[in-house]
Request: fold
Amino acid sequence: MVTQDEINARAKAAVMDFDDELVEEICEEALEAKIDIVSLIQDGLTAGMNEVGDQFEQGTLFLPHVIAASEAMSAGVAVLTPALEAEGGSVKSKGTIVIGTIEGDIHSIGKDIVLTMLKIAGFKVVDLGRDVAIATYVDAVKEHKPLIVGSSALMTTTMVLQMQIEEQLKEAGIRDTVLTMVGGAPVTQDWADKIGSDIYAENATDAVVKCNAAAE
Amino acid sequence: MLPKLDVLSSEQVEAIHEHSMKILEEVGLDFLYEPALEVFKANGQRVEGDRVYFDREFIEEQIKKAPSQFTLHARNPENDLVCGGDNIIFMPGYGVSFIYEADGTRRESVMEDYDNFVKLAGVSGNLHMTGGNIADPSDVPDEIRHLKMLYSSIKNSDKCFMGSASNRERAEDVIEMASILFGGREAIKEKPALICLINSITPLKFDDYMAGSLMAYAEAGQPVVIAALVMAGSTGPASIAGSLSLQNAEVLAGIALAQCVNPGTPVVYASSSAITDMKTGALSIGNPECALFTASCAQMGRHYGIPTRSGGGLTDSKVVDAQAGYESMMTLLNAGVTGINYVLHTAGILEGYMAMSYEKFVVDDEIAGMVLRYLKGIDFSEDAFAFDVIKKVGPGEHFLAQKHTRKYYPLELRDAELSDRLPYNNWAKEGLDTLQRANKQWQDVLATYEAPELDPAVDEALQKFMEKRIAELTK
Reply:
């Protein structure tokens, strides 16, 4: 019979190997073997992800590795989630962050990198995708009650819509329940200050630093 | 590899050759070295005083004896280099007397600078050999500098290096040291390990130091770089075609001497020609005319079937500034794309061969890395077209998580070593400009430097030889 430690170690290695198919297989095997799912996520998948993240910080691994490791981990989490929910368990997180590329803008790579880094940092991240209507952000804040809601814009023409998130959150009476975060190539600290956004993230690393500070 | 850029038509190549033949036949060259005159006389050339008048058939015959490529051997065989063909060899600057510091001041170069540049070039992933005569050690007596410099080149790196060519006696000394390192005269004759730079004195002269060194290296079967430095407008015509024909005549005469002394001697056809700045009369090298001389050199070498050499990261700037960067990128990229094989002065040069700068060395090392990447061209394998991956990812998604990306980014996407690619806020934390980053980088490299191992018996033999020669030369 496979032990918890063995399967955690194999899951960790598979994440570090960026092998999403193997991660899925291991997670399915774990479900059959009635292994502790929370431990598998935290001490197996996340441990592998953290190792990759550390090597990225040290400059020995690069963005493609981080993104691929994250996808491998997500593949495993997707297999485990139904069982996890059925047994009412949950994985520790620093908080929930809702994030999306704003209405009219389909440039989502930057947003995807940011959400990957935030996941690695231990946040639960809800991805709203791209070309996200302002009302969708507001609804997501109501539904997920996140710590932070983030919007990304690559163009000056879509950047102006970030102001509407602030306004519509206020109209819905929930602006005080959440921190807003803005990012994207044309976005600056000055712009964030001007529209009243709480956090300006210049890039993925900056987003992690500032979200960590907000979570404390 | 990319196809080579040609700047001359085949008619223009032929026209340069024809005019050079006319110069060699009708004007001739002065050789201020009796043994060289004897060699030419013995080979049926007309000699009057110091002047040698050449037959074109003789010159053309000698050119054919020179190999189209040769291997230069290093004490670590992994660092052996092939000079010729599609190969490009990068190395530090050569022959300077000054160090220009990051703060804009200058001082005379010393032995420690020479050691440092050998170490930096030895460690560099972009420089293939450590060169020679990088910076004159002003703190070492002139008579023994060649010994100290060669020992440093041997000791501080296991890449290929150059030997002294300041006169026949010194050439013999460094050839002897190379023999000790590689196991005797016959060993280096079979596997050449020492290469030297011979310069004509433009217009149309070779002095006794250069002709003597050339003959010593040729006799020992060691490769010789034979170079002309025409300053168009002063030591040559202001018209580039005229200066090219002059340069070509001088280089071919030098190659003929090497082939007469020892047929099949590996030679490198070399140009360091550039222009005269007409405001000051000074040599100016960081310019498009110099790049045209280099490009023409590459093409003449291909025409003759002989490897070629030019300068590399060349600039007239006194500081590591935008001028130093844009001039050096033009001249080094040009040497690469036109197919030069042996690039002297790839890294470190400031003010027209006058000075080395540590910071400029680091900047040029980065430029060299960029040029090498550019020359590698584009992978056109079926796998590199990545159709299956493009199909899998589809519209609107990204390729960052793909295995194909992890495989190909290290192969096709070069990581910068000096250039800053950070977003503004990250950069602004330290706010370092190129000069400041380069200053930090070379100091970091030297701080962690470890010398490659040298066989203690060989080391001892080298030191013994040096002691003996130093005693003889300084008594």
Remarks:
- DSSP finds ten helices and five strands in chain A.
